[in-house]
């Protein structure tokens, strides 16, 4: 199966400092997290809204990176870092 991203929802987890989003491999849900540092334009002063806007602006690149990292035999949770987003 191919990894798809039909659900455009995303949320910011302030405790973990990540943006969460979902992908689907057939009927299987795959959880993805993008580290806030990978989305930050500056090292300080970004709000939840800023992180979500940065995620939305980079969504195609983020989904491409998620697809590259995903392997069905390696689990259903992945964390993307700045290095993954190039």
If you had to describe this structure to a student in words, what would you say it looks like?
It comes from Neorhizobium petrolearium. There is one protein chain. The chain has helices spanning 36-39, 48-69, 82-85; strands at residues 3-4, 10-13, 18-25, 28-35, 77-80. Helix content is 35%, strand content 30%. The chain is α+β, with helices and mostly antiparallel strands and 86 residues long. The mean pLDDT is 93.
**Rg value:** 12 Å
Number of strands: 5
Strand content: 25-35%
Write down the secondary-structure element order: EEEEHHEH
Count the helices. How many? Answer: 3
Span from first to last CA? 26 Å
> Level of helix content?
25-40%
Mean pLDDT: 93
Morphology call: elongated
Structurally, the number of domains stands at 1
- CATH class categorisation: Alpha Beta
The CATH superfamily is known as Shew3726-like
**Major sheet: size, sense and barrel closure?**
5 strands, mixed
Uncertain regions spanning at least 5 consecutive residues:
none
